[in-house]
Structure formats: structure tokens, C-alpha cells
Amino acid sequence: MSESENPAAALRAAVRERRMPGHPTRRALLESGDPALARQAGRILKDLAVDGERPREVDVAVLATCTVGPFEALLRAQLVGAGLLPALRSADYGTFGMSLATGSFTRDGDPGLVAVLLDAGYFLPGDFGAAEPDVLAKSVDARLEELRGLLAGALKHTAATVVVHTVPLPAQVRNGIISVRARAQVARSWYRLNAGLLALAEEHDQVVAVDLVGELAEAPVQACDVRLHRYGDLPYSDDALLLLARLVRRVAQARAGLSRKVLALDLDNTLWGGVLGEAGPQGVQVGGLYPGNCYTELQRTVAGLREQGVVLVLASKNDRDQVEKVLTEHPDVLLRPEAFSARMVDWSAKAGNLRRAAEALSLSTESFVFMDDSDFERAQVGDELPEVAVVSAAGDPAHLVDSLLRHGWFDVMALTDTDRKRPELYRNRALRGDFSSGFDSSEDFLRALDLKVEMTPASEYTIGRIAQLAARTNQFNLTGIRYDEAATRRMSEDAGHLVLSVSVADRFGDEGIVGALWVERTDEVWRVLNLVLSCRVLSRGVERAAVGRLAELAALAGARSVEGHYLPSDRNGVAADFWTGAGFTPAASPQETETQVFTLDAATAKEIAPEWIALNERNGSPHE
User: What SUPFAM superfamilies does the record point to (predicted)?
Assistant: First the structure.
């Protein structure tokens, strides 16, 4: 019996062996809609500890206006399903306002995430009359203002990301008002409440708002268990709490940089209906009435993902010329050939093709989502590449879009300009690969690229992208410290620190922001707390140019030396020799950590940057 067929046994084995559950088990946790299974999984995973190389950890505090009930277990199962190692703590019942007002939820350390569980009873007056809708509306507005003030005060105590959600209006309140006009008035005030809850994310950078009401409207579940509500102040059904746990997990997943970058798609009975080899280019189903309109909607959705930075790959067993003909000539096809950054159209095994696509794009297969209608193809990819998120396109094509989107594989905390440009950036990467084949040496190729590197102090417009790089970069990540947006902003505004973005352009186009440095600076020494660089620009000398310019700036500011740090992990070995290769000398490292320290005389900065890179700055000099 496989892990996915008996997840409870697999979870117990993982806890017993002190390791993360395998990919099939974690995938089963995310895909299951059974709250009983999720509750059981959450209870089993309460004692999960991991030896050796640890996964991303997330410390979550749960603050609730009602009884937490099974929410903590459901959330734990979802977080582990996403590949996170969670530590959860819930505030005591009845302490919601006090916890926010005093910041007591930080007593055991500042959590990375605060999940706020709200119920309608927090906003409804206890003695409102059904014949007085104005009284109810004023009370709801007042409670929202009170929550807004409590939340603003709580943010002074924490750097955590706080997740709030919209709240459904109980049916008994709605149906207890017999005046049709008054009922509409109450509904309008409740919509205003939920609009205000969603607006909290616009008022505070640390707040994320998720739409539980919208999820409940689409899901065939009951929001409230009336008996449990009366018996134990549990206002939500287990099904509703599982929906909320998924929404919070998606935030944690995006915050940890675990979002996927690539969508690999089959063609036959996935992007269009029918089998091309049997129906011919004119016979595939796309456009028009059902089922063709289902495939049109999927293509429109995929095009929307691409506009937001998701890289598209074709992975189809088909005749290449026939596929090209359909993609180019079919009037109802929305995804033309240029939409795909890589096209793996042949008769080879799809797992191998996904590996080759990942190599061509210089990305890990961990960043892939694969969608296919064939049970065999999905199983083969799942077995050989368990780290790939597999999405089924089987069954009624009306459900294709929901199947692709429901798990939030591509969620990011905020969309940046670099995200929007990513598909074209990876198409240009393939062009560079063709361009490089005509040179006798790598240095000749690099000179011909006409590389330009730009160093820029972090600003309101770039902090989001810089924090995203910290969260998502694994290979060239020198210390593994993932400064989030709040921490990056504080450092950028502090005279004792410096945060720089690194942008790259060449003859094929602008790569955008591909790297960042977080620096602590004193009169004598500038310490590089972390340096990250996207894998797509490695081997061009960009990292050396960035550090060379930093050392030059340190010398101009009067500092004598630059100090670099490196903390080995199982994924950043590519950066192990960076500091010594750039001319730094190993120094004594702090005994209490495994961090390696390297130093460089700031006066030798001009010797670091490769001569084939032109380096410039904008928005002023970073040392000013």
C-alpha cells in the first residue's frame, strides 16, 4: 500500500523516524477534502520533529474570538502538507482582545505568522432587535473600528504576518428579519464589514486578508454547526475550518517562498479536447460550446497566470509539426507558441522531459506544477519526480480551471515587475544558450553579452522583490537568512545597515532585480549578513561585480574591511567557494555557530569585479 493510500500510517512512521513525511503523503494532505482525515493527521503531527537538514519552519500563533476547536490540528496538517515544519500555539479562550492589546502572543517569542480566527458573534450586539437594523449596523461598524485599533496596536509588538478573514453572516440573523428591506439593509452593513476586514491588508503591510466567505460560497459545505456553536462556542463546521486552514496555509506557503514558478502542460484532453493524432489539427476541441469552451477557459486562465509571471512549458507526446500547426493557425487557440518558454513535444517519457525543461530554464523541478489528463503520465511523473506538484486534468473538463487553481501553487505575497517579466526572461535564457554555441571560450561569450549590473538602494518599489528573493533563493543564498519584507524595510531605513538590489541587463534584454545584499556597516567594517542571487544569472560574474562595488563603497565611506559570511546547507554548495574566489581570506568564525567568516581589505575592491561587466548605479549612491 502506497503512502498516499494510507497517509495516517505514513505520518506515524515519519513522526517515529523524525523526518518530514514523503511527497506523496504531503500531497494527499493537501488534496483531501475530508476534515476527519485532516484532524487525525494534525493530531499525529503534533509531535513531529526532524533530525538532520530541517525544512522551512513556521511559528504560528492562533488568536480567536471563539473556541479554536480543531482549527489548530487542521492548520498543522495543511502546513506540513506544504512542506513546512510548524510550531503552533493558541491563546487562551476569552483572551482575544487582551492578547492583541498587550502583545502577549509574543511572550514565547515573536511568531512568524498570526492566524486570527474571527466569528460573527464578535461583531453582533448581543441584544439587538430584529426590528432595529440601524442598531445592528452601528454596532458592527463600532466593533470593526475596535478591531482596527487593536490590530494597529498589536503590530507595534510584532514583525509577524497577521492573517485575517471575512466572516459569514449567520442564517438565523438574516432569516430572523422578516422585513425584506431591513434584511437587505443588514446584509449591506455586513458586506461593509467584510470590505473593511479586507481593507485591513491595504492599511498595514503586515496584514494579509483572505476571503473565507467567498470560499464558502463556492464550496458544497455548511459554514456553521449550530449544535457545536451552542454547546462549545464552536461557530464553524469542521469543513469551514478546513477551508480557512487552506487559506492560511497558502499565505504561509507564499511567505516562505514555496510558490511554484513553472506550469508544465499536456495538450490532448488538457489544453484542448480530443487527441491531435486522431482528430487532426482541425478536429481538436477548443472554443465554441461545451466542451470546447472549457478548454478555452483553461487557456485563458493559463494566459493570465503567464501575465503574472508563471513560466509555461509544453510537455506533450505528439508530433511537433502538428502541434506547431495548431498553436499557430487554430483561430480559437489563445496560447500561441511564444507563450511557452520551453516546448518538450516528442515521444519521450514526460518525467525525463520535465528534467530537461528544468535544466534548460536553470530551475529546480521543485518549482514545477504538471497538469495532465492521463493517470499513467501523472503516476509516472509522481513516482520519478515526487517533488513536482501534479494536477489532474481527467474527468469533466468543466472542472479544469478549479483543479489547476484550488491549491494556490503559484501564490506570492505580492506581484513584482520581475514576476511579470519572468516568462520572457526565461525565453531569453534559451536564446542565450543558442548564442553561446558560437564562441571559443566562456569569457568571449560573456564579453559579447554586453553585461550591465546595476546596484540600487532598496526603495518602497523594490523591497517586495528583494524580500521575495530572500524567501525563494536556495542555491546562491550565502547564509540562509530569509529577511522578510518588514525586516528588509527596517534595515533599509537604518543608518547602520544597507540593503542593495542587484539588477542585470544584457544584449537580450533586462533581467530585472536578480540579487540582493543585506549589510551591517560600522566605521571600521561592513559585514555582508546575506547575499542572494537568482540561479538564472549564475556563472556570469554578477556576484563578484556586486561584492566588488560594495567593497568600493565601503572604502569610500572610510571602512577598512568587508566581512563576508557563509553558512553551509544541503542546497547552497554552489556558493561554498565564492568568498575565497573573490579574494577574501578566511577569518576566525564564531564558535557558537557553523557560520564561516571571510575578510577583505576594502582598498582591493577594484580587483574583484570581472572586466566584462559594466557597473552603474541609480537613485544616488548607496553610501550616501
Answer: HAD-like
Which residues of the chain are under the pLDDT cut of 50?
1, 619-624
Distance CA 465, CA 487 (A): 13
pLDDT at 138: 87
All 3 cell numbers of residue 529?
Answer: 549578513
Taking Cα atoms as reference points, which of 199, 119, 113, 213 lies closest to residue 163?
113
Find the angle CA(317)-CA(318)-CA(323) to the nearest 5 degrees.
130
Interval 118-145: pLDDT, tens? 999 999 887 766 667 788 888 899 999 9
Q: What is the pLDDT of residue 428?
A: 57
148 in a structural domain: yes
Q: Give the integer Cα–Cα distance in Å for 334 and 326.
A: 11
- The enclosing H or E element of 521 equals strand 509-521
Report the alpha-carbon distance of residue 192 to residue 140 in Å, rounded.
9
C-alpha cell at 168: 459569514
Tell me if residue 467 falls in helix, strand or coil. Answer: helix
3 three-class SS: coil
C-beta neighbour count of 442 within 10 angstroms: 11
What is the per-residue DSSP string for 131-159? T-HHHHHHHHHHHHHHHHHHHHHHTTT--
Pair 236, 272 in one domain: no
Could you report the per-residue pLDDT of 554-565, keeping only the tens digit for each?
999 999 999 999
| Domain count of the fold of the chain | 3
Give the integer Cα–Cα distance in Å for 400 and 388: 18
Collapse the DSSP code of 596 into the 3-class scheme (helix H, G, I; strand E, B; otherwise coil) and give the result: strand
* Positive or negative: CA dihedral 48, 51, 54, 60: positive
- The answer as to whether 368 is a domain residue is yes
Which residue segment(s) compose the domain that 567 sits in?
440-617
Residue showing cell 543564498: 477
Whole-model pTM: value is 0.77
- Residues 250, 266, single domain; the answer is no
| Residue 2: per-residue pLDDT | 56
Contacts of 202-205 with C-beta under 8 Å, sequence gap 24+, read 203/148, 204/151, 204/152, 204/155, 204/162, 205/485, 205/486, 205/489
Length of the chain: 624
181 and 131 in contact (C-beta within 8 Å)? no
Question: Which H/E stretch holds residue 319?
Answer: none
